[in-house]
Write a structure and sequence with these properties.
Number of helices: 13
Distance between the termini: 19 Å
Largest sheet: 15 strands, mixed
Radius of gyration: 22 Å
Shape: globular
């Protein structure tokens, strides 16, 4: 299919799909210092997902066809977004819309549904054809790391940025039609944009689903001692128990930064971790991924290792952007299985406070552990449109999927405020673009 000349229009906005590997941040003068999530125009962004180097890294994936979507308002570039085209089943689950809908995973927990809902889930998912080929090619607006990845031109006001986000559902649907895609998704949007995106997406025929919540640990203390002293007595006891067990087992933390942090030890631990949890790819896949990280964004890599008698037996890989850390992946040998909580939360917080970090993003899933250790849970929504013969089945499955994640966050103690379309009965939803 042709993917280099697609354009779309909505109100005062125009969107242009750029060829693979072409990013305006490098080629037409907008520049990395001209694009940023915060809209202040002062220095580099503190979100790794809109860093120009991250765009280069994501473009090297061999599981999706990646493109940059340039959004213009009256001929002036105002935003960039990453689009992932999945030609056939087999892409990464969290960015492959037909597979993501109805697959039990951290973004769908059918065991949390009540008995009648669970029976409905089982019936609906069983009715979907294996492979779901009728809904490919598929197009998703998202970037790896469970973020929407839309980068706005510096100097844009919050209202202007929200207007771009609200235009994206219609623009994305037009691009999807021109590419011949059979399903479309706009993924991992949070507040303050979610409500405006929801209204626009609902009008365009999408269905909203709560995908999860980004766990963010805000650090206000000046050092480790002040941080520990500021915890509740319950959290302080838990921290001391986990850190003491880590140290009494003979572990200590070593930190390595820069490209050299991604060495053979880290690669081997990641391969073993993926094999343990049944994740796709072996040594060659991990090596390619780490090579791309090292070459494109290596200066931002931070690896914290759990060392025992001179050997690193576990690691957590972060990417640093300004005063923030973003957890990318972890890996632990069997001998270090008890180190995860101490290394990933407490030892990471200690290192962060010693190195000017004020915020740690842990991503989605394992909400209880993150919430109990001080993370705020920030909901992330997705909107899906399916155009094949089983479209309504997908939409019903997505409603149940959303309900399960809504219940997960309620059980944790951090309920998500629903977007408006999730509070309406199905008959109240307006659809205008389903094919």
């Amino acid at each position: 299919m042709t993917t280099t000349a697609a354009t779309a229009h909505h109100g005062s906005f125009t969107a242009r799909l750029l060829p693979p590997g072409h990013h305006p941040a490098h080629h037409d003068g907008t520049g990395q210092d001209g694009i940023g999530q915060d809209g202040t125009g002062e220095g580099a962004s503190d979100l790794i997902w809109d860093d120009a180097r991250w765009l280069r890294f994501t473009a090297r994936t061999d599981l999706h066809e990646t493109h940059c979507l340039q959004v213009l308002e009256e001929d002036r570039p105002v935003a960039l977004a990453t689009l992932l085209v999945t030609q056939e089943p087999g892409g990464l689950l969290f960015y492959d819309a037909p597979r993501l809908a109805g697959t039990a995973s951290p973004m769908a927990e059918p065991e949390l549904l009540d008995e009648a809902e669970r029976e409905q889930w089982d019936r609906l998912t069983a009715s979907l054809p294996e492979g779901r080929a009728d809904h490919y090619p598929s197009l998703a607006l998202a970037t790896f790391g469970n973020h929407h990845g839309v980068a706005h031109t510096h100097g844009r006001s919050p209202e202007q940025r929200r207007s771009v986000m609200a235009a994206l559902p219609a623009l994305l649907q037009q691009i999807s039609e021109q590419l011949g895609c059979r399903s479309t998704a706009l993924l991992y949007v949070g507040e303050p944009e979610a409500e405006g995106v929801d209204a626009a997406a609902t009008r365009a025929g999408y269905h909203a689903t709560l995908l999860g919540a980004d766990a963010v640990h805000e650090l206000s203390a000046d050092d480790w001692e002040q941080y520990v002293a500021g915890l509740s007595s319950r959290r302080r006891r838990g921290l001391r128990k986990e850190v003491t067990a880590y140290e009494n087992s003979g572990f200590h933390t070593v930190a390595t930064t820069g490209p050299e942090a991604l060495d053979d030890t880290v690669t081997a631990l990641q391969v073993a971790h993926r094999a343990k949890y049944g994740l796709p790819g072996g040594h060659e896949r991990v090596r390619r991924d780490f090579d791309a990280l090292r070459e494109e964004i290596g200066e931002s890599c931070v690896v914290l290792g759990a060392a025992h008698e001179g050997r690193v037996l576990g690691f957590a890989l972060y990417l640093r952007a300004g005063d923030a850390l973003f957890l990318r992946t972890v890996g632990f040998a069997p001998e270090a299985s008890g180190c995860y909580l101490a290394l990933t939360y407490h030892e990471t917080t200690r290192w962060a406070l010693e190195n000017g970090i004020r915020r740690i993003h842990y991503g989605l899933a394992t909400y209880e552990a993150k919430f109990q250790r001080g993370c705020a849970l920030r909901p992330r929504w997705g909107w899906f449109a399916f155009h094949g013969p089983d479209a309504e089945v997908f939409h019903e499955v997505l409603a149940l999927q959303s309900r399960s994640i809504e219940r997960r966050l309620e059980h944790v103690g951090s309920p998500a405020t629903p977007v408006p379309s999730r509070t309406l009965p199905p008959s109240s939803t307006v659809y205008g673009a389903a094919r």
